[in-house]
Specification:
Distance between the termini: 40 Å
CATH architecture: 3-Layer(aba) Sandwich
Largest sheet: 8 strands, mixed
Number of strands: 18
CATH class: Alpha Beta
CATH topology: Alkaline Phosphatase, subunit A
Number of domains: 1
Helix content: 25-40%
Number of helices: 13
Length: 474
């Protein structure tokens, strides 16, 4: 296998990769409980005590965003690298973006750009697993070997004691990430899943906030009957493993019967000006919902910017066979720029910036050098089939992500790629460092916390061990 750290190209997608492919994720719904998985859950180390209840919103770009066409422009590079977009200044002296991000440029003092991410997992599944679990295996796998950081956080926080907040600790809003999940933790620590378009006037989140009191009483009677039937079984539960199942059943009941839970998901309670600020589209309203939920006490929120707003294949995988890469970046840039800038501003305006960390990233970047291939189909940001058009392929050797809130120092960039954007060359950060930084904000020392795997072996929560990035620690 070609080493992407030293090769001039990386493995292309068989493409086009459709949205359906990206939706084949291993994240089960909140109510899909796996008793065998629960019975295996034993932590080798407890979650360290933390003084404040911190939270993370992760905005995921499935397919990988071009760093050169956004946060790391290369105006002096040849045209076949730099692309057609002009460079604009931000409100931070010396920090420039491409012209596609004017709204983020105006608030660049409220976030930090990490320009020197790097790993060596070239495929979508492997790259996603690398970034979300730290798995160093470069092969694309159907089933994750390690749990993702979101499920790990949910599991560890469940060990702190009964949850008083009626909302689930982990919510996935249209989160379309390939082949990640709870692994040996089981499905119980996956997200409460929200799907659909929150911009639609008839959008609702099912299984929360029953308003019919007769239905609520019926559920209570069923729960009481279930408890009585469980008495004999629980007399043999000497180790107390079924307590975990009780916890998740209680959370599910709370979601169904507590009106506050329904209110947190209800975007109609936001004023029109706020909804307009985020953008009256799927992405804007997803990120507005994320802000509402984190403000209401949800610990972890993951949401994907995918679907029709991305272009023909509904993700950021801008191979020439999928999209005309520059048309695709133009096509999605307004909605992306508006939604992300609104979320970041809102986090600061509402005083959430110390407690809440916002991270925007994909699994890797795109090739600095543009290539041309025939399109495989006509659609948004793609020419008719057979038309040769420009594209950028997978590129894990150098890419960017942005960080806001979390009490970090903002208004700067960390690290650098070379003059062509091919390699991270200054302050290089890996996936292990990325994950360790998120865990640190959540009060978790990733170097000392282990969880038993399927075989009972204490396993570190980051397979690709790294250290928190000092510049991104609040």
């Amino acid at each position: 296998m070609t080493d992407p750290f030293h090769a001039s190209t990386v493995h292309p997608c068989p493409g086009p990769e459709t949205r359906r492919g990206f939706l084949k994720m291993g994240l089960a719904g909140f109510a899909s409980l796996s008793l065998p998985g629960i019975l295996r859950l034993q932590a080798a180390n407890p979650l360290p005590n933390q003084k404040k209840k911190t939270a993370v919103i992760m905005v995921w770009q499935p397919g990988g965003c071009s760093h050169i066409d956004t946060y790391d422009p290369k105006p002096a590079a040849p045209i076949e690298y730099r692309g057609p977009f002009g460079m604009i200044p931000t409100n931070v002296p010396g920090m420039n973006f491409t012209e596609l991000l004017p709204m983020q440029a105006k608030i660049a003092d409220k976030f930090t750009v990490l320009r020197s991410m790097r790993h060596d997992s070239p495929g979508h599944p492997a790259g996603t697993l690398r970034m979300l679990t730290g798995d160093t295996d470069r092969r694309d796998k159907e089933i994750p070997k390690y749990p993702d950081w979101m499920s790990v956080t949910n599991y560890l926080r469940s060990k702190e004691g009964p949850r008083k907040n009626p909302l689930p600790p982990y919510v996935g809003i249209n989160f379309s990430s390939q082949r990640v999940g709870g692994a040996y933790l089981g499905d119980a620590y996956g997200p409460f899943t929200v799907s659909g378009d929150p911009n639609q006037p008839n959008f609702t989140v099912p299984n929360i906030g029953l308003s019919n009191q007769a239905e609520v009483k019926q559920l209570d009677r069923r729960a009481t009957l279930r408890q009585k039937l469980d008495t004999l079984e629980r007399s043999f539960d000497q180790a107390g493993e079924l307590q975990a199942l009780d916890e998740f059943e209680t959370q599910a009941m709370t979601l169904l019967t507590n009106p506050k839970a329904k209110d947190a998901f209800d975007l109609s309670q936001e004023d029109d000006r706020t909804r307009d600020r985020y953008g009256r589209n799927t992405w804007g309203q997803q990120l507005l919902m994320a802000r509402r939920l984190v403000e209401a006490g949800v610990d972890v929120i993951s949401t994907s910017l995918s679907g029709p707003l991305c272009g023909r294949v509904q993700n950021w995988d801008d191979h020439a066979v999928n999209h005309h890469v520059f048309d695709a970046m133009r096509f999605r840039s307004q909605a992306y720029d508006q939604a992300v800038s609104a979320l970041i501003e809102d986090i600061y305006d509402r005083g959430l910036d110390e407690r809440v960390l916002v991270v925007v990233t994909g699994e890797f970047g795109r090739t600095p050098k543009v290539n041309y291939q025939p399109s495989t189909g006509e659609g948004n940001a793609s020419a008719p089939a057979g038309t040769k058009q420009p594209g950028r392929d997978h590129w894990p050797r150098a890419f960017s992500n942005i960080w806001a809130g979390g009490g970090i120092e903002t208004g700067r960039f960390i690290g650098a790629s070379d003059k062509l954007g091919e390699d991270s060359v200054e302050r290089i950060c890996g996936a292990g460092d990325f994950l360790a930084t998120i865990y640190h904000h959540l009060g978790i020392d990733s170097s000392s916390v282990f969880i038993e795997d399927f075989n009972g072996r204490p396993t570190p929560i980051i397979a690709d061990q790294g250290k928190p990035i000092p510049e991104l620690i609040g």
